[in-house]
Write a structure and sequence with these properties.
By secondary structure, this protein is mostly helical. The protein has 1 helix and no strands. It is rod-shaped and about 95 Å long.
Length: 69
C-alpha cells in the first residue's frame, strides 16, 4: 500500500472543500464585474447624455428665436 496518498474518499472530500472556496471567489469576481459594468454603463450614458442635453437646450433656444422674432 502506498502511504503517500490518502485513500480515495478523503481525496474527494478534500477536493470538494477546495472547490467550495473557489466557488465563493468566482461569485465575488462575478459580482465585482457586474458592479464594474454598471459603472461603465452609467459613465457612458453621462458621456453621451450631457452633450445631448446641451444640444437639445441650444436647439430650443434657437427655435424660440425663430418663432418669437
Amino acid at each position: 500500500m502506498n502511504s503517500e496518498f490518502p485513500p480515495a474518499p478523503f481525496q474527494v472530500i478534500a477536493n470538494d472543500a477546495a472547490c467550495e472556496g473557489l466557488e465563493d471567489q468566482e461569485e465575488q469576481a462575478r459580482e465585482q464585474a457586474r458592479r464594474s459594468q454598471a459603472v461603465q454603463i452609467a459613465l457612458s450614458w453621462l458621456l453621451v447624455g450631457i452633450p445631448l442635453a446641451y444640444g437639445f437646450y441650444e436647439t430650443l433656444l434657437r427655435a424660440a428665436k425663430l418663432f418669437t422674432g
